[in-house]
Design goal:
Largest sheet: 5 strands, mixed
Order of helices and strands: EEEEEEEEE
Strand order of the largest sheet: 3-9-8-5-6
Strand content: over 45%
Amino acid sequence: MALALTACGGSPNGEARSGSAHLVIDSPKAGQVLSVRSVGVSVHVEGADQYRLHYYVDGNDRGESDTSITVTNMSPGNHHVEVEGLHADGSAYSPPLRAAADFIIQ
């Protein structure tokens, strides 16, 4: 999938905005407490026609995907998800367009 976003700084509240481009982590929400071991990470992008999304969970590269991934076998505790919007050619924006959210698994 290819999409085009303009540059924007990172955001710890699950959203990143740049001009009309808006990247939102829909799930998990920042501060959410979950009781599951498989977590669906879903995002949506508004105001952009072409872009690529790259996922990181607890600092581990989970690769590129469309608007969702599922992470299995997660341990109890605090976790961090970050999604980066990239140019359609895979290059990063400067400053990076990144949205992040911290969540907890019981």
